[in-house]
# Entry
Amino acid sequence: MERPTSSSPGEEEGLPLVNRGTKQQEPRPQILRTFSRESTRSDMSSPTKAFRQKSSEEETLDLEPENNGQLEHEQWGKPIQFLLSCIAMSVGLGNVWRFPFVVYKNGGGAFLIPYLLVLFLFGRPLYLLELGLGQFASSGAVPVWDMAPAFRGIGYGQAFAIFIVITYYSVIIGLSIIYLVASFNPVLPWTVCNPLLNETLLQQGKICLPSGANESNFNTENLTIVPSVEQYFVQGIVNMKSDITDGLGVPDATMMAALAVVWFLLYVCMRSGLRGQGKVSYFTAIVPYIILIIMLVKGLTLEGSWNGIKFFFTPDFKRLQDMEVWYAAITQSFYSLTIGFGCLGTYAKYNNFRHPTSRDALIISFADCFTSILAGTVIFAVLGHLAHQQGRPDEIANIVGDGGMGFVFMVYPEVLASFPVSNLFSILFFLMLVTLGFGSGIGLLCTITTTVYEAIPGVKNKTLLKAICILGAAIGLFYVTPGGFKVLTMADDAFNRIILGLACLEVIAICWVYGTDTVMRDLNFMLNTKLSIYWRFCWGIFCPVLLPLVFAYMMIFKGWDKDIQDIPVAKLFALLLTMAGLLFVPGNFLLSLLKEQEGKRWWHKLCSCARNPHLKNSLLALFKPNDNWGPKQTELKEQWKEFCVDHPPRSLSQVLKEELLCCGKKKAEDQNMNLNTL
# Structure
């Protein structure tokens, strides 16, 4: 990453600039300067530039004491880059392959009722909460907990969880790259049977059937038919095996190469710092929408497409009585918007303090919902066409299957092969998957690097980035083995539990420990507005009550994934991963408590802590904001402190009384105005 860009000291307050040995000058516009090693070396190429560089550094050092507290990190080049980066991160692969199947399995069009309701009362409020606090404190997932240091372990747990997810997310992007490259072949490789693999299938009592071939032309007696697209994916690419009792196997060379390409591209996108990420966001956020619209237009012109769309949107209102439908709506909104990942606050820390975050939260949540519905329409339009081709228009559910990777890499490629210009549409589809994957992957990697850098500020950014990319690629080798998809499922199950559990603690800590009214006060000061009682209800009551109930429902009633249900070792490892992620919170709390105690060994510190007569005060201090909490700019922090004095915290009953009084006064004023008019 580049060093931070910052304005010249004193300019933000509109103060005149002062140089050593010179007289006072007139105020001038804000100047953005980048202090990177590269720019320093280039500036030293001539004596004049070297002198200017030295003068600028002297000027900064002269005014450093007067400006102690200015931001020391990068900022987004343009506000639109922040918005597009958030959209690219939130709108990911799950919107394409998960949402459509969640909808049709949970009541079709009726599912949109709980989904939109949850988005309004749960998704959007939590999205603004994370964005707002990250921007307010200009802090990432860990330093933001200066508001309640006892919960700082949440930030480390989130970084641990998203490192788990990016290790297998990169494998899925790698698969998409393999299919994208294969789409340039004159004949799509998944439309024909591979002779080298046919012998293995025959030994298993199976026979490969090319895409679009008539079954009657083949001798299939006593043989199980395997479509060529399944042969290409299962035996040709991932070499999948269902039994891993004898080990995972050797990593596949093609998958290893694709994995290396993914991590190299992630490194290239991240090495230039925030400005480079902002430029990449134009591509990763916009291109998927262009491709989705092209696919939608094509899909609507296909025969039988409207049967698929009708199947997708036909409501089954009886399903609304099922608790599983509401659970699916909440978890879909939660994971789709990347709430509780720590990514939102990390991106928002690079904003200007007065950036209108509430507007962006509305736009991004709408974009995510719109993309999910658009992708579902495209997917089921094509599925309707496939069912029509196969002569079973009423069996779309059998074609859909369980969704997920099997659909994306087997069902959809088979449909694309039937298009007139199959190569073009195949290229577009897998290019869309690659861009969606990279948009989310960059956000996840940015959060990990920021968290580690904030914990170890002395390390060089590029060295840290290289180390994380190499470690992520090394762990990814487990997923590209024949038994790797079992490991992937195990890691995904553990991730889901970690991130939801940490999100429960996060919402409770912010809304009930730090305080909903305090959050409202801070965001009102930052946004220069007055947030309505809607936000107070969602943050103070709805979210902190609902989220723990959802987590309890998951842990009690939702078992492990069926792919690892019968593998005790996989379930045990998933459980250990889950516990490791959640233990960051009590572990960090204990370390914070022992940090100031006497003793060289941890057990000495523990004994000292137990004998400490001021233990209660030490505990209470960990649940209150420390001196580092608040805006990072000195002037803004002073203004905020004055604002806090003028706006003390209020209870919910006081707020309701004030709102009712305001409504009554306004109604009386309107009546008087009407009487005066008459």
Summary: Residues 1-70 have pLDDT under 50 and may be disordered. Residues 132 and 357 are 6 Å apart (CA to CA). The beta strands are 5-7, 32-34, 206-209, 224-227. The chain is about 65% helix and 0% strand.
